[in-house]
User: What shape does this take?
Amino acid sequence: MGAPVGQLTRGTTGHNRLRRSDRWLVHSPRVRSVVQTAADPLVVDLGYGALPVTTLELASRLRAVRADVRVVGLEIDPTRVAVARAAGSDTVEFGLGGFELAGLRPVLVRAFNVLRQYPVEAVPQAWSVMQKQLAPGGLIIDGTCDELGRRCCWVLLDADGPATLTLACDPFAIERPSDLAERLPKVLIHHNVAGQRINALLASADRAWNSVAGHGVFGPRVRWRAMLDSLRGAGLPIEPPRRRLRDGVLTVPWSLVAPP
Assistant: This one.
């Protein structure tokens, strides 16, 4: 392979920072199906940062879906790869790579807090390079979160393009759903202005949140679920949660938020 495709990112990370996206991946029917039925259950964690903690956590959580899942952490910085290898792991491999995925053909790619550090114009090309490397039926999760992982947003893509947008949070860590706007993926964050679809979704969520304020006496998690019910009642295609999560999760089809 040639040189890795991409640029060096800040590399900040931390234990359990990506726990909300990991929980979503483990319980997503589409992700589970892809991992469970793959001939080679290879997963790539792209841009894991200065320490490999979130890669190791991802591997541990995905083994609840399939025990023989293979996880490879890729970084563009050789020093970070050396640090990860020195940490030692019998269950995860680490290597040098960027958006070209080091020539691997994974069924799932997690690229979290990577493209946020790129110009928005670079997103389509980065997506395209990764999509071309996917195994048949493979998926990509491109997401962003805050330093403690309490506010997260991500796009799920397949070989044809974006499929869904998910907003996830600790409901105790927000005042309103639109607080998550600061963590929108790069492809959307500049479109959070009046007249754009993502702005309309966040505004609808805020109105629904306000309309169910009475549920707040039972806690913000109950209020979040009531907000989702209100949005569905208004006709928005909100994906129903598959289980009662501690997280506040809102998933919609990409067509609902896609930029023009």
Summary: The chain is about 30% helix and 20% strand. Residues 19-254 form a domain with the Rossmann fold fold (CATH 3.40.50). The longest strand covers residues 161-169. The mean pLDDT is 94.
